Amino acid sequence: ANLVLHQTVERIHVGKKYGDIPRGIFVVRGENVVLLGEIDLEKESDTPLQQVSIEEILEEQRVEQQAKQESEKLKVQALKERGLSVPRADTQ
């Protein structure tokens, strides 16, 4: 079954920080649903996470993704230098 959610929020986690982005109404096709649950607000307040602004969490996410890409480039380069084949995700 398809889901129609209202007052939805996208939460982005980076390290011990998080930011919430209000998304409003959200439609989810049934075959894409794996797990759905409600947040327990009492338990959520006990977490050691720090809430930051949307701009700050998006910048933190961008920096984290760049670091992962750089790490992946270094790994691929090291494999090539050793004569090993490098699997490619984009096979176009």
In words, what does this structure look like?
This protein is α+β, with helices and mostly antiparallel strands and 92 residues long. It has one domain (3-81): Roll (SH3 type barrels), CATH 2.30.30.100. Helix content is 35%, strand content 28%. The protein is built from two helices and three strands, in the order ββαβα. The protein has helices spanning 41-44, 54-81; strands spanning 3-14, 17-28, 50-51. It has a three-stranded mixed beta sheet with strand order 1-2-3. The protein is extended and about 50 Å long. It starts with a strand and ends in an 11-residue tail after the last helix. The mean pLDDT is 88. Keywords: Ribonucleoprotein, RNA-binding. InterPro entries: LSM_dom_sf (IPR010920), PTHR15588 (IPR044642). This is U6 snRNA-associated Sm-like LSm1. One of its GO terms (molecular function) is mRNA binding.
- Could you report the average pLDDT, rounded to the nearest whole number? 88
Q: Note the quaternary state here.
A: single chain
- What is the domain tally? 1
Task: Using the alpha-carbon principal axes, give the shape.
Answer: extended
Main sheet: strand order: 1-2-3
Unreliable segments (pLDDT under 50, ≥5 consecutive)? none
CATH-defined architecture: Roll
Using the CA coordinates, give the radius of gyration.
19 Å
How many H/I helical runs?
2
Order of helices and strands: EEHEH
| Biggest pleated-sheet summary | 3 strands, mixed
How many β-strand runs?
A: 3
- CATH fold-level topology: SH3 type barrels
CATH class: Mainly Beta
What separation lies between the terminal Cα atoms? 34 Å
The proportion of residues forming helix, as a percent range, comes to 25-40%
Fraction in beta strands: 25-35%
Q: Structural class of the secondary elements?
A: alpha+beta
Organism: Colius striatus (Speckled mousebird)
GO molecular function: mRNA binding
Protein name: U6 snRNA-associated Sm-like LSm1
Keywords: Ribonucleoprotein, RNA-binding
